[in-house]
Design brief:
Number of strands: 4
Strand order of the largest sheet: 1-4
Largest sheet: 2 strands, antiparallel
CATH topology: Alpha-Beta Plaits
Strand content: 5-15%
Number of helices: 3
Distance between the termini: 21 Å
Radius of gyration: 11 Å
Bound molecules: iron/sulfur cluster
Helix content: 10-25%
CATH class: Alpha Beta
Oligomer: single chain
Number of domains: 1
Order of helices and strands: EHEEHEH
Length: 86
Amino acid sequence: MTYVITTPCIGVKDGACVDVCPVDCIHPSSSDSEFEQYDQLFINPDECIDCGACEPACPVTAIFEESAVPAKDNSFIALNAKYFRK
Ligand code: SF4
Ligand code: SF4
């Protein structure tokens, strides 16, 4: 399982989730060279340890455990994974 970043992050990208993730699996962070190229952040499903720390840290409720992602944002499950498979 993994956590997934969804629509509300778009245009916000404040990085609060990056600051609390114990395994540094949320990218691009503001220090990554690609940060400006993306309108949201993504969680690496292969590295996320499902700790849940990022979910309450998000000011716009963009993060959900995979099985709890709202139906309208189901495509974000694949979208998060895709960022790490380039
Ligand atoms: S659930 Fe934990 S490990 Fe996974 S992205 Fe959030 S903070 Fe990082
Ligand atoms: S805390 Fe929420 S809005 Fe901020 S970067 Fe993470 S997912 Fe996006």
